[in-house]
Amino acid sequence: MTPAHLQIAIDGPAASGKTTVAHGLARNLHILYLDTGAMYRTLAFLALQTRTEADNEIALVHLWDAAGVKISLDAEAPLGFRIVAAGREIDEAILQSNQVTAVVSTIAAHPRVRDAMVRSQREIALQGPVVMAGRDIGTVVLPSAQVKIFLTASVEARVARRRAQLQEAGVDVSVHQLSQEIEERDRLDRERAASPLVPAPDAHVIDSSAMTADEVIAEIERVVALARA
Fold first, then answer.
1. Cβ atoms of 136 and 197 closer than 8 Å
2. How far, in Å, are 125, 138, 224 from residue 9 at the CA level?
3. pLDDT for position 165
C-alpha cells in the first residue's frame, strides 16, 4: 500500500554519505529527517555504559525499552534531530566514538533488536513526510516508500569521508584502522541473517565516489520529482 505522504528511503553501507545526503535533502524539501543508524548507535552506547554484552539480545531489547529513548526531530540540531536516552542527550561525538563503532554492527544484527527499532522507526514515519536513512529502510522499514535510494561509494572514498566526520566531532583515527573497520562493517552488514544490506529491487542506485553531497542531493531530487509527477 502506498503511504499517504511522501516517504524517501536512503540505504547504503557505512560512510557512504547517507547521513549528509539525507539531512540536506530533507532540509531542501522541508520535511522530517531521521538517520536510523543513530538509534542503533544509541543502544550501543547504552550497552557500553551499563556493561550489557553485545551478544545478549534479550538484555539489549530490555535496555532499549527501559532507557525511555526520546527522538525529537529538530532541523536546527547538528544531526537534524535530538536523541535523549536515560536522561541525557546523546550527541554526535558519542555516536561516532570508536567504542560505539566497534560494537554497533554486532548489536544491530540481533533480530529482536531490529524488530524493536523498526517499530520505533515506523511510528516516526507515520507523523508525516520523511527522509529516512539506514541499511534496511527500503527493504524492511518502509517497503512501500515512493522513493528508494541505494547510496554506495568506494572504500577509499568512504574512509576519507568518515575520517573527516570523526575529526569534526573531535575524534582522531588512522586511515588503516578506519579501512579495517569499514570493511568489517560491510561484511557484517552483508552476512547478517536479519535484514542483510541489499538494495531494494526498485531502488535507484547512486555511486557517490566521485560526487559531492550537493550533486547526490540534486540527483535524488530528480528522482523525487519523477515520483511525484
1. yes
2. 11, 5, 11
3. 78
pTM of the model: 0.79
Superfamily of domain 7-212: P-loop containing nucleotide triphosphate hydrolases (3.40.50.300)
CA distances from 182 to 51, 119, 158 (A): 24, 27, 8
One-letter amino acid of 7: Q
Question: Is the pLDDT reported for residue 110 higher than 90?
Answer: yes
pLDDT of residue 1: 61
Higher pLDDT, 214 or 124: 214
Question: Phi and psi of 88, rounded to 5°?
Answer: -135, 150
- Domain limits of the chain? 7-212
Sign of the torsion formed by the C-alpha atoms of 182, 185, 187 and 189 = negative
